[in-house]
Amino acid sequence: MIELSQRAAALRALHRPGDPLILPNAWDAGSARAVAAAGFPAVATSSGAVAEALGHADHEATPAGEMFAAVARIAAAVPVPVTADLERGYGLRPAELVDRLLATGAVGCNIEDSDPRTRELCDVEEQADLLAGVRAAAREAGVDLVLNARVDVHLRAYGPPAGRLAEAVRRARRYRAAGADCVYPIVLADPAAIRALVAEADAPVNVFARPGAPAVAELAALGVARISFGSGVYAAARARTVEMLAAIRAGGEVFPDAE
Fold first, then answer.
1. Span 246-256, mean pLDDT?
2. CA-based nearest residue to 133, from 167, 104, 99
3. Which of 178, 223, 230, 232 could form a disulfide with 132 if both were Cys (CB 3.0 to 4.6 A apart)?
4. Is 42 helix (H, G, I), strand (E, B) or coil?
5. Which residues pair with 85 in a beta bridge?
6. Rounded distance, CA 89 to CA 156, Å?
7. What share of the chain is helix, strand, coil (3-state, %, to 5)?
């Protein structure tokens, strides 16, 4: 547990507002090795990418055992801290969730605040209790894992548009009080709204890098502490694979520089 504690502390220290931790999310041991070899100081998994790579759909359609096994293979493949996207926890109680996560060698996790099956936002106090339970279980286990609380207000288009930012801030502050290290208002992309949330959330903020979102340099200037690419790298790799397969099927030149 000492090594895991050291890795958790190292991961936590990488969350610096204005100098963000950049996470091109991995989906298997090979992609994780590529991320680490490229010089990134930590590896994050993408639940959507892992699910598709394993032959499942996103939104907790992957059996928990398969997801934890995939995380374990990733953590074993790299010398840097690993944080795992665990959706909403697969219905596991906090102590079991933490035990199974730590057994993989990962030292951080994402927990989202909408039901993966109904796609509806969870009650904020229910979610705060879940996060507090995970934090308490981690401390009981002797590893103060890095807990990233996803805020799905904008993803789920919750309530009138004019009130979404205020609701995201309310949830972020409550989750921080419950023990979250970082808050993740997924799909929030408006620079002014990101700046406001950074100022008001009282927690390091994670932003999702995607088409339409500010560039990395702009997000850093807004005070963001963590930038995730989700399943974006996996989707790009898959698209390139489709292109190559089409070229092979058509008998075209796939490796023009090959001898």
1. 86
2. 99
3. 178
4. coil
5. 110
6. 19
7. 50, 10, 40
